[in-house]
Amino acid sequence: MKDTDIKRLLYTHLLCIFSIILSIFIPSFFLENFSILETHLTWLCICSVFVTAVNLVLYLVVKPNASSKRSSLSYKVTRFLKCCIYFLMSCFFFHVIFVLYGAPLIELVLETFLFAVILSTFTTIPCLCLLGPNIKAWLRVFSRNGVTSIWENSLQITTISSFIGTWLGAFPIPLDWERPWQVWPISCTLGATFGYMAGLVISPLWIYWNRKQLTYKNN
Predict the structure, then answer these.
(1) I want to staple 129 with a disulfide (CB 3.0 to 4.6 A). Which of 45, 59, 141, 168 is the partner?
(2) 88-98 residue pLDDT tens
(3) Residue-number span of the structural domain to which 125 is assigned
């Protein structure tokens, strides 16, 4: 494992964090009264677009899993359509999970779905960029010893940290503090965002710290 690969991973993650920061500040120049709390649904859409765009650009430039096979236009179009379908399926899947865990079934449907979209952006989009619409590859990466690169190691950490952040973000909702950020699903989306950003910082540091112990099948 080369230190340059870890540095490239770190720089990539810092740009992903920067995209979230931009989603907070740039819209305020064009939208009146824009804020994470007051216009939360708008921010969710903007943040999702920013993070998705940066992920796509970075993975197209970095190409951690570049392959020369099946590079025809029809294959690329089919792969893109499959990725879109996988992303939508992920959004609906998370939406159902949130309802099963207590989110309003009929009221606040848009809020719940956009929460599912942002969580899919933090978890499914990186998987699609790195692994493509390949369920076997997803199962391999998220198995105990299935990773084959530092990028997949990082994918594990950022995905898990996003879920943990979402789970922790749900704790303040039932409390009677009557704070604006306790309204569904603000605290959960903030938890998912902080969890995702924490994973982006922690994963390259953890990989660098354990670089001598980490071995991969393709190395």
Answers:
(1) 59
(2) 999 999 999 99
(3) 3-62+71-217
